[in-house]
Amino acid sequence: MKRTWTNVSAQGTEIQEMRxxxxxxxxxxxxxxxxxKQIKNWINRHNRKEEGSKVGAPPKVRxxxxxxxxxxxxxxxxxxxxENQLLRDFLHAAGRR
Length: 97
Known about the structure:
The chain is mainly α. The protein has helices at 12-20, 25-32, 36-55, 70-93. 63% of the residues lie in helices and 0% in strands.
């Protein structure tokens, strides 16, 4: 099944007018030739944007995590090797291997 992309945001004013008129999501979707899920997702995004602008809070900005240095990787690798060796020794002493 080929996926298609539809710019639902371009029809935002029409969707909002229909919502204000009291139409259901399915009725809006049928009128605009979209799926109910597309309308639902647009309404949720729109409501989130409206809620954020009312409160005055800035929009969420996702930040990248700080890069882990090579030294930290080496330390973690060494620690895991030691842990594996301890577990092997324990299993050997317990007679399980």
